TrEMBL record:
Pfam family, one: HATPase_c
Molecular function via GO: phosphorelay sensor kinase activity
Phosphoprotein listed as a keyword: yes
InterPro entries linked: HATPase_C_sf, HATPase_dom, His_kinase_dom, HisK_dim/P_dom, HisK_dim/P_sf, PAC, PAS-assoc_C, PAS-like_dom_sf
Known catalytic reactions: ATP + protein L-histidine = ADP + protein N-phospho-L-histidine
Keyword Cytoplasm attributed: no
Keywords noted in UniProt: Kinase, Phosphoprotein, Transferase, Two-component regulatory system
Domain PAC: 40-92
Domain Histidine kinase: 110-325
Enzyme Commission numbers on file: 2.7.13.3
Organism of derivation: Spirosoma telluris
PROSITE patterns linked: HIS_KIN, PAC
Name of the molecule in the record: histidine kinase
């Protein structure tokens, strides 16, 4: 659509209140140049009453005779809203691409560092073992460094597994196979399998709130989430953590509660960044990818993972998943229920 003077003047100056306020100074300058016989062009916005914001491209032309005398002024304004919208989409895509490239560079840099750390430790231990091989009393030292190597290999293996999992998530290749599950039984099996041999005889306290029912979820993915959160609870506290399962009409809620070292308040906003480790976790093993993976697995179920924490007081991790359930389940023996 094209507009000609005096339509340009009326729309540009805002006789009908159409010119978008932030663009009025530029429009006034354009009209001054137009009146002075200076050719120019300007992109500006108008806001017709009852309509959406639109973009116009105004251009002015001067026709002169052979001596340079002005014979005619011509002004044209084209509606370029569609073009501007496409430009905006392109700019947003480019910005997103730049952000992704930056994240990839950061990821590669951090991952390289995380890989080098255990490899350097392993290499140092190997070098020391070689020295102790020629020492008659070196057997104890060799065993010590073999243990260090085993520890670092396990850490390296966990890191590699987590990075491969992150790659599957980003490429949308994580298998998602929900089925009807007894989540209480799943949690009891996790506790028995993974957390029955903890130091100082610490055991997970399992609490049930509400009438249990079968839920529709991928028990493999949710088991991974629960294991990760409980592992953190054991690592970062000296007491027995609590796993609370809440059954409501709308949601299945899983809470992992510990009274450990907590997370500094200023760092809560960066919890779900890849490779993030809280500043008070030095010396405690971990890859910094567990929470990233756990949140992604929960979101595959249209759920949420929220973390509340206070330094030196403890942490509460809450997994909330929309309830798709059927049939109330019988109560299990040796399990504490908070309500009837």
């Amino acid at each position: 659509m094209e507009y000609y003077l005096p339509t340009i003047k009326r729309r540009a100056i805002g006789v009908y209140g159409e010119c978008f306020a932030p663009d009025k100074p530029a429009v006034s300058a354009f009209l001054d140049q137009y009146k002075a016989g200076i050719e120019s062009e300007l992109y500006y916005r108008i806001q017709p009453k009852g309509e959406t914001l639109r973009w116009l491209l105004a251009r002015s032309f001067i026709i002169r005779d052979e001596s340079g005398k002005v014979l005619r002024h011509i002004g044209i304004a084209n509606d370029v809203t569609s073009q501007k919208e496409k430009e905006l989409v392109l700019q947003q895509s480019l910005q997103r691409e730049q952000e992704l490239n930056q994240l990839k560079s950061q990821f590669v840099s951090t991952a390289s560092h995380e890989f080098r750390t255990p490899l350097t430790t392993i290499q140092s231990s190997v070098d020391l073992i070689k020295l102790y091989l020629d020492v008659p009393t070196g057997k104890a030292s060799i065993q010590k460094h073999v243990a260090v190597i085993e520890k670092e290999i396990n850490q390296f293996s966990r890191l590699l597994t987590d990075i491969l999992t992150i790659g599957k998530i980003e490429s949308g290749k994580v298998p998602f196979s929900p089925r009807w599950v007894n989540i209480v039984s799943v949690c009891e099996e996790i506790i028995t399998t993974h957390f029955s041999q903890q130091e100082e005889f610490r055991r997970v306290r399992l609490l049930i709130d509400g009438a249990p029912y079968k839920v529709y979820l991928d028990d493999k993915l949710i088991s991974h989430v629960i294991v990760n959160l409980l592992s953190n609870a054991f690592k970062f506290s000296t007491d027995a953590p609590c796993l609370r399962i809440v059954f409501t009409a709308k949601n299945l809620v899983l809470q992992i509660i510990d009274e450990g070292i907590g997370i500094p308040k200023r760092e809560l906003s960066t919890l779900f960044q890849a490779f993030f480790r809280a500043s008070n976790t030095n010396g405690i093993p971990g890859t910094g990818l567990g929470l990233v993976i756990a949140r992604q697995f929960v979101e595959l179920h249209d759920g949420r993972l929220d973390i509340q924490s206070e330094e030196k007081k403890g942490t509460v991790c809450t997994v909330s998943i929309p309830a798709r359930h059927k049939g109330q389940l019988p109560r299990l023996a040796n399990t504490f229920y908070l309500s009837k």
